[in-house]
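Two entries, shown back to back:
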Amino acid sequence: MSTRILLGLSIFALLLIATAYAADAVKLDGINCVVQGTKPAKAETGVDYKGGKVYFCCMNCPKAFAADTPKFAAKANYQLAATKQAKQVKCPLSGEDIDASQKVKVGAVEVNFCCDMCKGKTEAEKDQVAFLFNDKTFDKAFKVGK
């Protein structure tokens, strides 16, 4: 009888651990490699970046990322936002409080602005990821963490 109870408690503990892990896991559906850009990112290739993790398609891409991080920073910052590891707290252009009615969808990320002028500047940009997720604008507008 005590073996059954011990086995049941062990299974219950494993289920709790698995549930907690799944709740913290980053969703990578539709997320591409920071370096390759068009290849799907894989969970086993994640590396620490700005308090979160960025993901790649293979084990060679983290090496390329480490060798020239500034080159890939905008894509890495975008991936942090797309995987919901980074939350927007301010306007990326002005650093002011955001108005939820002033927004632009950039791929999988909805970006809010303080005013129509900042929104308009973004809509006019050809490469919105580079414009909004470079280190300067990202650090001004987004916070990584829970």
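entry 2 starts here
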Amino acid sequence: MTVGEKIQFYRKKIGLSQEELGQKILVSRQTVSLWEMDKTLPTVDNLLRLKEIFSVSIDDILDTAHPQEDNQIKPKESYIFQYKKEDLAELSKKEPLAAMTPIVIILILLFISIISNQPNILTLFLFAIIALSMLAVVFRRNRKNWKMVEERLLACTYYYDVFDEYFILRIFREGDLVRTQKIFFNDIKQTQHLGNFLILYYAGESLPIPKDALIPESVFTTFRKDAIAKEEPKPLSKTSNFISILLFVLSICTMWGGLAGANILSGINHATSSENMWVLFLFLPIPIASIVFGFYLKKKGYKYLKNIIVGLIMTMPLCLFGSFPFLTPNIFSHSDKPILDAEQVLHIDIPQHSHITTQDWSVGTQSVARRYIYFTSDIHFDDSAVEDFEKQLANDDKWLTYIPNDLIGITSSLSDYDLYDYALIYNVDTAKFNTLPSKSGKYRFINILYELDKKRMRIVEYDIYYTK
């Protein structure tokens, strides 16, 4: 048979006119007629479309041999599936949840990005509201889509005739044949196992097949390299399932736990949270254990990729942020130099400290053009060391208990005045305290703040382009 005769044969077999076939391929009826008269040949793109419509291979269309009728070949397997609602109960629970996996992974990545910037409670609350809303919308949409699929499954009877390289699907509704399709196994790009069902994904459609209805060594379970083994593995034990879930949940929480640990340690050793980010390495064994356990289950034949995926996702940021103190060792220092310089320039006495941490801000690019911050020093004192100093603060005019509105323009963006009880602003260029410059220009300031309850002081040195 010629190519044109083959096209005509397959077109008539599925009951399409030349015009209807042309509409499906987006060509005219005359083009289809020219193909069937062997006056022209379909392009590669059109052959691919014909292959999908006829449910045959391209070789079948181009081969000169007369096509063999499927009814002349005895199928290796035959099944009749007429689903009941109770049969689909398992799928109705798992299918919508399985479809939410991509959005859950995206939300996890967004959460990691947010907490890495040390957000406040309001930001976390808003994220939780948005995330829950997105999950609710996606879940509702998936449930609606599944309801449509479920109604179709319950209304029809499915006949499967299975051959070596393909199967023929016939769908009947109320005794009438509504669809016949020849589906090649090579065209099925994805399979999924949900409980007792093997889901075949073909051309945007999902075909659920009850695994307990299949014969041993069925073609359905062996045609793909990633299909289940010929012998189904035993159900996962409760202990292994519990360990899998526990590692999955703990892996998700490791980033939050690591940042919380860094903050707690900062309160103990009075260092910044960034200096203590190495604590995140202590949480690495959890996602690594999740990865190892996931591969162990996979080797045993179980589908527990979620442990591998979440383990990999959480290991990367833990390593990245945990390496920060080692990659930037020169940003932080604990030298007394900022205290000595402040005492010399401001002519004040700063008590003996218990700990000082200075962060150098000049190593990076600063986004505020009119301000440039050189360093910040956080100093902590013992109670006994600051008794006399605190008595002097109340009687020293240089120390303000609040910052007037007119001085806000010459303050530092890294000074949270609501947290401190006393503050002073010193203009290095004019040698004046808490005073606006008399003319526009660039000035260097030293800002010192003190908090009574926590016995801590902050020193900030910065430049400001002041406009009168």
